[in-house]
Every structure is written in C-alpha cells, then in structure tokens.
Amino acid sequence: MGNKEVYKHLCETEGSSIPLFLQYWWMEAVCDGKHWDVALARQTDGSIAAAMPYLLGRRMGLRFVVQPQLTQHCGPWFSPRADRNEAARQLASHFARLGLAFSSQNLAPGTEALTGWEDYSCEERVTYRIESMQDMQSVFDGFDKQRRQRPIRRAAKVLSVTDDISPEQFADFHAAYWRSRGQEDVLSAEFIARIVGAALQRGQGLLLGAVDATGCLHAARFVAFDSNSAYALLSALNPEGHHNGASPFLFWGIMQRLSGKTEAFDFEGSMDPSIAFSYSLYGAKPVAYRHVTRFRNTAVRRLLRALRVNV
User: Residue 57 pairs with which residues in a beta bridge?
Assistant: First the structure.
C-alpha cells in the first residue's frame, strides 16, 4: 500500500483532527492532473506519527515541491502520541530522498521550528484571523464602525444573501471581475468550479452572493471550512461596479451562516499592506506562519531567479 492510500485511510479514521488543507479530498481536488504524494513518519509500532502532503512537479529536468493553489499550508500533521522531534526528522528525510532541486512550502500557523529542517530558509508570513466565532454580536462589534458596520447596515436595506449560484457561474463571475480590472484570472474556470464543487459536495464549503431586488449579483465569495477554521479563498465583485457595500455585507452574511460550524475565520492573507488594513477593519488579527525553502545549490537558485520563478 502506497503512502497516499495509507494517508487516505488516516484521513477517514482521524476525521476532524486532520485540517482542511491536509485532507485527502482537498489534495485530490487542488492537484487534479498533477502528481502529489505524502511524507509519512511512523512510530515504533508502525502507526502514523506525522504526515505532510505535497505537490511534486518537474521543470527543465528539475524536480521540485511547491504549495498547491488555494492551499495556505500543507501541515505537518502530528499524532497526539508522536515524538515530534523524531517525526519531524523522518519527514525531512523523506524530502531529502526525493532529490529535489528546490522546495517551497508553507507550514501551518503555530508550527514551531522543525528538527531536521535546519538547512531550510525560513520566512515569516502573515494571515489575518478572527479567532472566535462563538459570539456573533462580539464579532460584529469588532468591526470598524464607520467603514464596516455602517456600510453593512446600509447594504442590508437593498441587498440579500443568496446561495443560488453554481460553481460554474461563480467561475465565470470571477473571471469577468478580473477582466474588468484589465487582468486575466490566474485560476482556470475548470479549476475554480472543481474546487468549489468538491467543497460544497462534502458540506465543507459556502458559495454565497449578494443580490439586489432585481436579482443583480453585486458580489460573490467562496469559503471552505472545517470545525477549526473557515478560509475566505475566492471572491469577486460585479465587473460593472454595482457594489454598494456588498463586500462587507457578504462577509458578515457568510460569518453568520458559519456560526456554530467552525471556531475561527481566516481571511487568507495578505502581506499587502492595503489588504491587511482592510482585513483589520473586521477586527481580524495577524497570525504568523512559516514559509520554508531549500535549494539544492546556489546554481539552482540563480537559475530560478533568472527564470523569474517565484518560490
């Protein structure tokens, strides 16, 4: 039995202890048509001590590991019974055996420095989170009064929240939004529809829109979630500019629907100061996570820089 089959069984048996981005079904969806696998660490009795899925690629004859799209991190996941230091060493040995030219991965927020990963370069990145969704009145009170609460109350008079949007319609709306900004969508319509559809089918996704009385769609968002956190992964505004506070209104509508289903709300970034400021107006706080990279040698690093490969 290969590592992926073992990992599929682990995800089925461990249930909610495996975070969203590490779930077997999630990796199957975001890596469809690509090669992904799992690094496993075992305890002396053969049980799984730790696991870390990864996307494996090849370019110009170079093997590499990078983060899958729409995937904040790929773990690692540790068994509560595991010796973390020994498990981390086994994970590092797995990646060393792959003969990678380079590796670029995000570690889950709260992951401390890993034993055996000392030769990886580490950069701190930040996402923004509301840590507790238990008291929705407290969540709303944490919104900026002038730039969040007031637009939401105004929008509520003319807009309503709907789930009458298909994954395919959302993918088209998302592409149209980026075209209106003079850019092409970096995600294909097929990819967006597949990810959204998979999450909705499992009951781990919300696809909602803000519409007016005529049925005009002003904004739409896709959020994936597990019992620990929801993640705002994709959003789009009406390309014709009919917004009217639709964005904060829709964020609030999504949070209300998630109440009781998850503990936290993650805005998924960003390191961009203007976006970070926007998220802070919802009362979200910065949460750090580690971005780790490793190059086989300086020649590979120079080649990737020359090719403008973002790792």
Answer: 64
DSSP state of 262: B
- What is the pLDDT, as a whole number, of residue 244? 81
What region, left, alpha or beta, does residue 252 occupy, with left being phi > 0 and alpha being psi -120 to 50 degrees? alpha
CATH of the domain at 168: 3.40.630.30
Q: How many other β-carbons are positioned within 10 Å of the β-carbon of residue 304?
A: 20
- Do 78 and 159 sit in the same domain of this protein? no
* 181 in a structural domain: yes
Tens-place pLDDT, residues 57-69: 988 788 999 999 9
Using DSSP's 3-state secondary structure scheme, residue 64 falls into strand
Residues 6+ apart with CB under 8 A from 215: none
Report whether pLDDT(40) > 80: yes
How many separate domains does the chain show? Answer: 2
Q: What is the pLDDT of residues 238-259, one digit of tens each?
A: 988 777 899 999 999 999 999 9
Residues 150 and 250 in one domain: yes
Q: Cα–Cα–Cα angle for 287, 290, 291, nearest 5°?
A: 130
Q: What angle do CA 281, 238, 129 make, to 5 degrees?
A: 25
The range of the structural domain enclosing residue 7 comes to: 3-125+290-306
Whether residues 250 and 137 share a domain: the answer is yes
What pTM value is reported for the model? 0.93
